[in-house]
Amino acid sequence: MYYLYIATGLAVLISLIADSERTLKGCKIALKKFVTILPAFLGMLMLVSIILFLIPDRVISQYLGSSNIFTGVLFASFLGSITLMPGFIAFPLCGILLKKGVLYLVLSAFTTTLMMVGILTYPIEKAYFGTKVTILRNIISLFIALIVAVMTGIFFGEIF
Question: Do 71 and 23 reside in the same domain of the chain?
Answer without folding.
Answer: no
